[in-house]
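Quick review question:
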């Protein structure tokens, strides 16, 4: 039986200790990151995130051993693949994903990489003077020529389609043109916290969509609360306004006289009288005929007034619906908290 070297045992033990003592453990892809950029990333994350690089075999062994003290930790093994770094932090997995996402940066191609998207050169001047550079660019398939004593690219051209391999000649030409088609950085593939394993798809949250969902939930909650007449500091003013409009409409339609309704009831009666008179013109006296001939456009009746009030109220409610994330959360709390 082959004896395991003490050094390897110590490496696994150190990993186990790190996993057990870190509140949040993540697995990040580090493939293709040049050493200088890796050092810059480490420096930028210092104090917030620790990175441990080791062989995947040792990492998986340590995860299994550490899972005896942290239930479910072994689930991280399914995202340990390729060139991997273990991420140790006390930042919750969602904030950790954003922190690592901020390390993403453009990088030059060396040749042999797969293009993540179409790689294109644009027509226009280059900073190069006439010389062998023209041949190098043409060799890479770039339509370059000399015009007016300088090297120009004559037309737009897609050099590599997404998913195709970048040749060395194209990679060299792109680097000279300062076109960096690759994106490198610490890509968090999964994270663990408090017994829960989070896959990358769960961590990659669209902030704008999340905010929109909160705002939409607040709007729907407000609509529901008003519909069922649920009293709260937010709904009371709207419910009182709604009740006032409905009471006013009921008083007008039932002919109930009050200081507020009398004017509208008289206007309604006058409009109905003129409408009736216009139907029997031969039975009218001279005064009514004169009033009909010079009557102004009909004024808004109580129904139109109520409709206008409703539309104005809806506009105000629409403005109220444009809530911020904090206001939305606060509103939900006050409605049902």
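Suggested answer, residue by residue:
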């Amino acid at each position: 039986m082959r004896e395991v070297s003490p050094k390897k045992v110590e490496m696994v033990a150190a990993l186990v200790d790190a996993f057990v003592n870190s509140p949040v453990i993540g697995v990040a892809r580090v493939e293709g990151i040049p050493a200088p950029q890796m050092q810059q990333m480490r420096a930028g994350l210092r104090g917030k995130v620790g990175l441990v690089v080791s062989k995947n075999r040792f990492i998986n062994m340590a995860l299994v051993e550490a899972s005896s003290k942290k239930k479910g930790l072994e689930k991280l093994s399914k995202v340990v693949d390729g060139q991997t770094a273990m991420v140790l932090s006390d930042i919750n997995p969602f904030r950790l994903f954003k922190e690592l996402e901020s390390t993403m940066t453009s990088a030059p191609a060396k040749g042999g990489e797969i293009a993540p998207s179409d790689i294109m050169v644009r027509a226009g001047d280059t900073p190069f003077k006439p010389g062998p550079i023209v041949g190098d660019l043409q060799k890479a398939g770039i339509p370059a020529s000399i015009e007016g004593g300088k090297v120009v690219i004559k037309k737009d051209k897609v050099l590599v389609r997404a998913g195709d391999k970048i040749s060395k000649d194209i990679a060299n030409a792109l680097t000279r043109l300062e076109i960096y088609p690759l994106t490198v950085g610490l890509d968090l593939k999964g994270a663990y916290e408090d017994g829960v394993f989070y896959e990358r798809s769960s961590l990659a949250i669209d902030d704008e969509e999340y905010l929109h969902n909160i705002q939409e939930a607040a709007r729907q909650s407000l609509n529901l609360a008003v519909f069922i007449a649920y009293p709260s500091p937010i709904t009371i003013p709207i419910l009182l306004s709604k009740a006032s409009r409905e009471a006013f409409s009921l008083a007008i339609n039932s002919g109930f006289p009050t200081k507020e309704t009398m004017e509208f009831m008289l206007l309604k009666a006058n409009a109905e009288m003129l409408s009736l008179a216009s139907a029997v013109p031969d039975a009218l006296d001279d005064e009514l005929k004169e009033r009909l001939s010079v009557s102004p456009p009909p004024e808004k009746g109580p129904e139109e007034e109520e409709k206008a009030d409703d539309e104005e109220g809806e506009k105000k409610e629409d403005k109220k619906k444009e809530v911020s994330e904090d206001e939305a959360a606060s509103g939900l709390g006050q409605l049902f908290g």
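Why it works: The domain at 6-104+185-205 is CATH 3.30.70.1730 (Alpha-Beta Plaits). Confidence is low (pLDDT under 50) at residues 319-325, 327-337.
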